[in-house]
Design goal:
There is one protein chain. The chain has about 350 residues and is of the alpha+beta class. It folds into three domains: about 120 residues, Beta-Lactamase (2-Layer Sandwich), CATH 3.30.450.20; about 70 residues; about 160 residues, Histidine kinase-like ATPase, C-terminal domain (Heat Shock Protein 90), CATH 3.30.565. About 45% of the residues lie in helices and about 25% in strands. The protein has a five-stranded antiparallel sheet, with helices on both faces. A hairpin with a 5-residue loop joins strand 3 and strand 4. Helix 7 runs antiparallel to helix 8 and helix 9 runs parallel beside helix 10. The protein is elongated and about 105 Å long.
Length: about 350
């Protein structure tokens, strides 16, 4: 068996070996025209050899201008150079994160450029999801410990205020004790929100668009004058098995956050879009799902401030004055109870929060 495998390996041609690689390999002439690309490279650019050979790499992969200095350095006889985490807008609208290596090689006595590209988009997504899930676990523990530490003295404070109120004869002084009781009740309600729902999800077969329509009506009624709330649904999505109350609350939290971001008046035509799509073979955390419902809330506001992007799902973290910083953390907790995850992508003029809900059990 070993001899058979060895003879088979020795019989492979060089192009066969390159076509078996997961890394995209391009060979360019000094004019940066493609003279060879392996199977992975063909998949990356969405073209076969007949359409790709002879064309410039900049034409095949628009948005790769940062690689030009690397090509120049390689042609000048420099050592191999690397461009890490290049953001590239691929064919049919897929954004990719690429690691690129450029090396000067000699083929048939002519100088050539060897361009190797590794698509690390999925790896980056898995890393980010793992960090989000770890963040969620850490915030849950912190919130529960903090809430329990605060609720006990709050109860004592409220009870003492009630006893004091009975002893006071002056109505004006009783007003102060009512303020104490009212504020204690408000803080208790805030802590209950931080703790999240105490019961497990009451899952049932639910149409995602029925939930979104309810959310859409509420958001449209709450939107500031001039803010448009649109819908972009995929009607082919099958029903989900979820607790509708939990998911509606998570959706409302995301939608209201978007409306608050749009209410500042900095955007000329403020717009929020509620969108649904189906995604196949998606990883949510460490688990791969055959089919996932993607529910997106996209706004054209100023974007998430850079200083809170890594901690945005932590409790008490808010990008606006007066915000409680609880909405996103609660939404993430509610969605995670259904095996899902909330992610976001943000830049000025475009912020998208995406709820991913597995549909494997549907």
């Amino acid at each position: 068996m070993a001899a058979e495998l060895r003879s088979t390996a020795l019989g492979l041609r060089g192009t066969d070996v390159l076509d078996a690689l997961l890394t995209s390999v391009f060979v360019l002439n000094p004019q940066l025209q493609v003279t060879y690309l392996n199977a992975a490279a063909q998949t990356l650019v969405g073209l076969g050899p007949n359409q790709a050979l002879g064309r410039g790499i900049g034409e095949l992969m628009r948005g790769t201008d940062p690689l030009l200095p690397l090509f120049e350095r390689a042609l000048a006889g420099g050592e191999g150079v690397v461009q890490r985490e290049l953001a590239w807008h691929g064919p049919v609208g897929f954004d990719r994160i690429l690691d690129c290596a450029v090396t000067e090689v000699s083929i048939d006595a002519d100088a050539r450029i060897l361009l190797e590209i590794e698509d690390i988009t999925q790896h980056r997504r898995l890393t980010r999801e793992t960090a989000l899930l770890a963040q969620l676990d850490g915030s849950r523990l912190m919130v529960r410990q903090l809430a329990h530490e605060i609720k006990n003295p709050l109860g004592g404070l409220r009870g003492a205020a009630q006893l004091l109120e009975r002893e006071l004869l002056d109505p004006a002084l009783r007003e102060y004790t009512r303020v104490i009781i009212s504020e204690a009740d408000r803080l208790t309600g805030l802590l209950d929100s931080m703790l999240g729902p105490g019961r497990p999800p009451a899952k049932q077969r639910t149409n995602v668009h029925e939930m979104l329509e309810r959310v859409h009506r509420l958001l449209r009624s709450e939107a500031a004058p001039g803010v448009t709330v649109d819908r972009d649904y995929d009607p082919s999505l099958p029903p989900l098995i979820v607790d509708p109350n939990h998911i509606i609350q998570a959706m409302l939290n995301l939608g209201r956050n978007a409306l608050q971001a749009l209410s500042g008046g900095a955007t000329a035509e403020p717009r929020l879009v509620l969108r649904t799509r189906a995604a196949t073979n998606v990883n949510v955390g460490s688990k791969r799902h055959r089919l996932v419902a993607s529910v997106q809330f996209e706004d054209n506001g100023p974007g998430v401030p850079a200083e809170i992007r890594d901690t945005i799902f932590y409790p008490l973290v808010s990008g606006r004055d007066g915000g409680s910083g609880l909405g996103l953390g609660i939404a993430q907790d509610l969605v995670s109870r259904h095996g899902g995850l909330i992610e976001f992508d943000s830049e000025p003029g475009r912020t998208v929060f995406t709820i991913s809900l597995p549909m494997d059990s549907v």
